[in-house]
């Protein structure tokens, strides 16, 4: 256990040196066991990202004594799991359709919850990813602005596989330009302050482009088994 913690600590020192204080580090703990999450918490991490509901609930139960962690759901939200996501997560990064947003808002009202949410966008075609395409997003933003229980506060981007660094940087820059453009519009409820993008292999490019949250898993915990 001490060896695991020492390994995380070494990686964390390197990562923190590359991340400004203004950028939130979300430790992606999917597939890593609860004791590893606890080690990260003991090293000062407070934001944890999961993409499968049942796995996350088991870890949260094992870590029930930790009361000041912030849990981020970063995977696709299945309709039948939406209520569980609302009950157990503070942030939802992956709101990828108007239908899902409406469901979450309705259930959030029933649960008296107001989670922070990001809208997942696809700025280039990628059949392997969910998310709003740009024209689709712009068309539904007035409807999303009517939702009163979700705190929609920014965008989330996941890059397609196989991009080189120049291509990755270009998409990150497009995402920040979109966020800025949307932020200037007179919405009633929407806020466009956050930009969740960048993972272990490209978070520095994302930060340079304007990311406010980066999602780092293997770069912090090592390779997943």
Helix and strand topology:
Elements (H helix, E strand, L loop, with lengths): L1 H17 L5 E5 L5 H9 L4 E4 L2 H10 L7 E4 L8 H7 L2 E5 L2 H14 L4 E7 L9 E2 H11 L6 E7 L7 H19 L10 E3 L6 H7 L3 E4 L1 H4 L4
Parallel strand pairs: 1-2, 1-9, 2-3, 3-4, 4-5, 5-6, 5-7, 7-8
What pattern of helices and strands is seen along the backbone?
Answer: HEHEHEHEHEEHEHEHEH
Instruction: Choose one word for the global shape.
Output: globular
| Rg (C-alpha, Å) | 17 Å
CA-CA gap between termini = 17 Å
Low-confidence stretches: none
Level of helix content? 40-55%
- Largest sheet: number of strands, sense, barrel closure: 9 strands, parallel
Question: Helix count?
Answer: 9
* The CATH top-level class label: Alpha Beta
Number of domains: 1
Remind me, CATH topology? TIM Barrel
Average pLDDT over all residues? 96
Instruction: Note the quaternary state here.
Output: single chain
Number of strands: 9
Structural category is alpha/beta
């Amino acid at each position: 256990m001490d060896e695991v913690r020492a390994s995380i600590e070494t990686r964390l020192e390197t990562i923190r040196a590359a991340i400004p204080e203004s950028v939130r580090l979300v430790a992606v703990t999917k597939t890593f066991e609860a004791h590893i999450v606890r080690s990260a918490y003991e090293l000062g991490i407070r934001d944890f990202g999961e993409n499968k509901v049942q796995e996350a609930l088991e870890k949260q139960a094992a870590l029930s004594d930790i009361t000041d962690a912030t849990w981020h759901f970063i995977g696709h939200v299945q309709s039948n799991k939406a209520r569980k996501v609302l009950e157990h997560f503070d942030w939802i990064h992956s709101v990828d359709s108007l239908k899902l947003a409406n469901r979450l808002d309705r259930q959030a009202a029933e649960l008296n919850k107001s989670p922070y949410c990001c809208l997942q966008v696809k700025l280039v075609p990628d059949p392997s990813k969910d998310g709003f395409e740009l024209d689709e997003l712009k068309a539904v933003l007035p409807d999303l602005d009517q939702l009163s229980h979700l705190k929609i506060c920014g965008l989330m981007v996941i890059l397609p596989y196989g991009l080189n660094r120049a291509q990755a940087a270009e998409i990150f820059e497009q995402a920040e330009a979109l966020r800025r453009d949307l932020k200037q519009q007179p919405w009633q409820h929407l806020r466009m302050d956050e930009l969740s993008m960048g993972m272990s292999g490209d978070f520095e490019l994302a930060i340079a482009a304007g990311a406010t949250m980066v999602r780092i898993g293997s770069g912090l915990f090592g390779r997943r088994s």
